[in-house]
Amino acid sequence: VARAEALHAARVKADAEAAAEAERRRKEEEEKLGLLRVFVKGVVGEDGQPRMVGPIQLTKYDTLEQVEAKIKEFLAKEMGEEYTPPDDGFMRIGVDGKALAKGQALMSTSLPDNGALELLPKEAEAAAEDE
């Protein structure tokens, strides 16, 4: 019985080590490809309250326009009829309260993997264009 328990414990430990190694390799590969998983703050739900959604798969090379398209696609898929695109068709997306400028790539921000993008009010877009 003791030998069986020792074998089981060794198997569990080996499985845990293999899983940790697989996760390390996955993260390493994502880093090479520039992949990021991000969440989006400020999406208004059916109850009228802002919430965070995600994760959404992006790359650090994505521009604001590509990020916006991927967010809209994710929201349409995940929220269905509950999702209503902005009236003017454009989202104002920011990091740490600062709006991203048109053409700006995520790599130029401090956004980490599993970080959060924000949907900002319209005034934030004008401020980003003035910079």
Automatic annotation (TrEMBL):
It comes from the Eukaryota. This is Ubiquitin-like domain-containing protein. It comes from Bicosoecida sp. CB-2014.
